[in-house]
Amino acid sequence: MLPQTLIIPAERDPLRGEAEDHAAQLAKVGVEVELVRYSGVMHGFFSQSGYLSKGKATVAKLAKTLGDVASADAGIE
Fold first, then answer.
1. How confident is the model over 21-33, as a mean pLDDT?
2. Within a 13 Å sphere around the CA of 32, how many CA atoms are in the beta-carbon half?
């Protein structure tokens, strides 16, 4: 079984369709998937977290998700 998956495509990403299709395929086989699309931004926007608010929000989302997964794996609630 694959682990839970977070997929974050940008609205203006040329790979957005593939990312959303991948999320749907994972969900179809029973993988817990969270798909978060950020509107109005392009591919790589999260690397611009120093000056894009959506980039900053994405880094925070990634950090929270990783923390939640690590805590669950360690049995910490």
1. 97
2. 4
Task: Enumerate helices (H) and strands (E) in the chain, giving the number of each.
Answer: 2, 4
Are the C-beta atoms of residues 69 and 3 closer than 8 Å to each other? yes
d(CA 42, CA 45): 6
Q: What are phi and psi of 62, to 5 degrees?
A: -60, -45
Residue 39 has pLDDT above 90, yes or no: yes
Q: Which residues contact 27 (CB under 8 A, 6 or more apart)?
A: 33
According to DSSP, the residues that pair with 33 across neighbouring strands are 5
Query: Residue 25 half-sphere exposure, CB side, CA atoms within 13 Å?
Result: 6
Calpha distance 44→67 (Å, rounded)? 22
DSSP symbol at 45: G
Structural domain boundaries, residue 47: 5-74
